[in-house]
Amino acid sequence: MNEVGRKVFMNKPVGTGPYMVEKWAQNRYIDLVKNPDYWDAASGGPYLDKIHMPIVTDTNTQWMMFQTGDLDASSVPPDRSSPR
To answer: Which domains does the chain have, with CATH numbers?
Structure first.
């Protein structure tokens, strides 16, 4: 991290995983693309060409988006987490 500096690294992280950051719109979304240099490509993955990850910080908004199919995962709002 010292070679590129903390600020640069935090905005454009480097790694050896199956995906790389293509675009990061702070507090809005992150777009990931296949890493052509993925160390374990022989395993068959990564399977998707691109992943779009919306950043939704409000739990109620996350929950509504999950219910309408706009998100694949969500936190459950506290008022909906106990059995009725």
So the answer is: 16-79 (3.40.190.10)
